């Protein structure tokens, strides 16, 4: 009996009885750059890392560069009903393509302050696209409480400290041509593309 108790304790210590932590499934509409724009964003991130080593940041991998447009929430598992509704909403969005110029990096506040790439001018068509998706979601019964104002940006890194002031970068011109529906599992480092809708040229 003592042997069994000792073995059970050893197994517990090795973690074999530990249950895995619950997953967080994230769903959102996003804009993702093409390869040339992604490369230029990566160059801007590298330059920032060289200029500010004190950030001690976790840098975003280039394939994950994106701008979140409409956040649909975090869930313990992927909500398939919401996925279906989101796709129906996107089918009803008819918006034009537009150019967006990113020209500076700044910090958001947080436990690990994000370093984000932004544009001095936010294109009116970008704001219109965000609003149209919001309205399309509401029209099919997806009503959400906005947690924060819409601030278009591309996250470059999560840092140990904030930038003391914004850092200008060589302007990056991005022709936004698609709306995407993305699913990710927080901490897993992979994005699953659930849908892609072209913007009118």
TrEMBL record:
EC number(s) from the headed UniProt entry: 3.1.4.58
Active site: 66, 153
Record carries keyword Hydrolase: yes
Catalytic reaction(s) noted: a 3'-end 2',3'-cyclophospho-ribonucleotide-RNA + H2O = a 3'-end 2'-phospho-ribonucleotide-RNA + H(+)
Residue positions of motif HXTX 2: 153-156
Name of the top EC class for this enzyme: hydrolase
Keywords: Hydrolase
Motif HXTX 1 per record, residues: 66-69
Functional summary from the UniProt entry: Hydrolyzes RNA 2',3'-cyclic phosphodiester to an RNA 2'-phosphomonoester.
Claim: Nuclease is one of the keywords in the record: no
Name listed for the protein in its UniProt record: RNA 2',3'-cyclic phosphodiesterase
Signal peptide: none
HAMAP family from the UniProt entry: RNA_CPDase
Annotated family: Belongs to the 2H phosphoesterase superfamily. ThpR family.
Coiled coil (residue ranges): none
Occurrences of domain Phosphoesterase HXTX (ranges): 33-114
């Amino acid at each position: 009996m003592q042997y069994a108790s000792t073995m059970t304790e050893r197994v517990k210590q090795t973690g074999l009885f530990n249950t895995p932590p619950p997953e967080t499934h994230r769903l959102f509409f996003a804009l993702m750059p093409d390869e040339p724009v992604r490369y230029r964003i990566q160059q801007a991130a590298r330059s920032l890392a060289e200029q500010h080593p004190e950030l001690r940041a976790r840098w975003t991998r280039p394939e994950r560069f994106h701008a979140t447009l409409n956040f649909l929430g975090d869930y313990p598992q992927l909500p398939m009903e919401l996925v279906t509704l989101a796709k129906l909403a996107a089918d009803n969005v008819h918006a034009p393509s537009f150019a967006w110029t990113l020209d500076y990096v700044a910090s958001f506040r947080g436990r690990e302050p994000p370093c984000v790439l932004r544009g001095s001018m936010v294109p009116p068509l970008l704001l219109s696209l965000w609003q149209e998706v919001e309205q399309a979601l509401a029209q099919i019964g997806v009503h959400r409480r906005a947690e924060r104002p819409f601030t278009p940006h591309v996250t470059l890194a999560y840092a140990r400290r904030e930038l003391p002031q914004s850092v200008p970068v060589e302007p990056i011109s991005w022709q936004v041509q698609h709306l995407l529906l993305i699913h990710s599992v927080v901490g897993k480092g992979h994005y699953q593309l659930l849908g892609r809708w072209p913007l009118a040229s």
